[in-house]
Amino acid sequence: xxxxxxxxxxxxxxxxxxxxxxxxSFIGLIGDRQLPQWVLSHLxxxxxxxxxxxxxxxxxxxxxxxxxxxxxxxxAAAVAFAVGTxxxxxxxxxxGGMITLYTVPYLTG
Amino acid sequence: MPSEANTHSAxxxxxxxGAPFILVVAPFGLLFGAVAMEAGLNLLQVMSMTMLVIAGAxxxxxxxxxTEEAPTIIVILTALAVNMRMAMYSAAIAPYIGKAGSGxxxxxxxxxxxxxxxxxxxxFQQRPELTVSQRCSYMLGSxxxxxxxxxxxxxxxxxxxxxxxxxxxxxFAVPICFIAITAPMLRSLPHxxxxxxxxxxxxxxxxxxxxLGLIIAAFLAMIAGVQTEHFLARRxx
Lengths: 109, 237
Prior knowledge:
The complex is a heterodimer of chains A (109) and B (237).
Chain A: H1 5-30, H2 37-43, H3 46-60, H4 71-87, H5 90-107
Chain B: H1 4-18, H2 22-39, H3 43-53, H4 56-67, H5 72-82, H6 85-97, H7 102-110, H8 114-126, H9 132-143, H10 146-160, H11 173-182, H12 189-204, H13 212-236
Helix pairs in contact in B: 1-9, 2-3, 2-4, 2-10, 2-11, 3-10, 4-5, 6-8, 8-9, 12-13
């Protein structure tokens, strides 16, 4: 990495200000006005619309393996998903996923 | 009349809802600290970024582009594109806390993370009787155990340096965290359809530059969720 110190600080400041403005945008702009019902019903699905798409490429093509699908990561994702849907438990899902991630390489040698 | 005790208990309910994420936020912070120092940032820069931005995925995106010597503006814009989902969080949370004071809104804007959003929307939908100040307390409470862990984890990771060996696959703590957040949300068919469209479209659009494929996929998934909801309502009617 060959950025000068000022450039690194510009990147940090740009990220900080930009991220805050994104987060604050509607909270600050909309205030106490009520959004129309059709907007609200779409926003109901924000989290399930963004998060699965964000992680799908990370699960199928992990950067740490150079983009090749990896058995222990796929198994860990499957276990985390199964525990999360059946038990509705975030901690259980994380624990199950991380244990699988570390166990599969030992089992498969 | 909302008493102080109710606001207080809302804070602690938020605290308890946020606490489980310590298990992912702490190692995620640890990893970011180690990777950022390895990439060539100094301790002050690592801590400034982590405390001012508090958005792991975007911070990692910025680091990855910086190690590839990308132009400054591309580093900033791409990392911010990863954060565009938070504009939707902001729009979703605004009707619930819009009446709060401006200082509180600035503070909650700063703290509107994936985790705070996830636990708060569930709470606000399930308890429509909450007052605005109880909602604010709940959101702050959900971040109270997490922000210190994120900052502390980053600091430890940065100080311990790159001593974490790659076979620990810590990179995968991130996807597992996101799966753990999302899986319990798939509580109805429209939610499942939205998630499937999100995955399919994001994978198909992975070639679109600047993470815009994810934004498009998210819009398609939200439309799919609402349309499924309407379809089911018509069938029942």
